[in-house]
Amino acid sequence: MKLTIFNTPIFSPIFRSTSNAIMRLAGWRVEGELPDLPKFLIIGAPHTSNWDFVLFLGVIFHLKADVRFMGKAELFRSPFGWFFYWCGGVPVDRKKSTGLVEQMVEACNKSDKFILTIAPEGTRHYVREWKMGFYHIAKSAGIPLVMAVVDGKHKAVRVGQMFQPTGDMNEDIKTIKGFFSGVVGINPKKKYITLEQ
Prior knowledge:
This protein is of the alpha/beta class and about 200 residues long. It has one domain. It is built from six helices and seven strands. α1 (about 10-25) crosses α2 (about 50-65) and α4 (about 100-110) runs parallel beside α5. The longest helix is centred in the N-terminal third of the chain and has 16 residues, at about 10-25. The chain is globular, with a radius of gyration of 16 Å. The chain starts with 10 loop residues before the first helix and ends in a 17-residue tail after the last helix.
């Protein structure tokens, strides 16, 4: 088992207890649970604030999940590359002939357990269209999508709703966005996610 910040003995329980305490003090709660599956892709939205990453860590520690995230290959070089691996990072080499999707599918296929997290908006700023990489990764790897809905109005993150891509991307995206429709993230000034985006 590869050690990460989420499963390192001694350290992870300390981080989890601290994280849970901070979440309680901040008034945030996690509703639901992750599926008991070895491989899936978590999409978190709306992404409206720099604080989303801190919230993400709190949610993952609360759920006791061992997750992965994508990072550019340069981050994983010496002398600090070990830290990003330890945080669950999976390097993406933009110089390779294979693209991001192919690299993530390969990483998934090589792993016995693989839980990848992605913010489909790709930025905390308002975007009219989501980046579709998450969909193509899930479809090509044959793994389900699990929703993590950031409800800033009620200070809750709802997790657990699953969707298996069918291949009809337009209809699938409408269905997926439906899980998030009308929800405001941490920053209420940002636009709601709507089916028309």
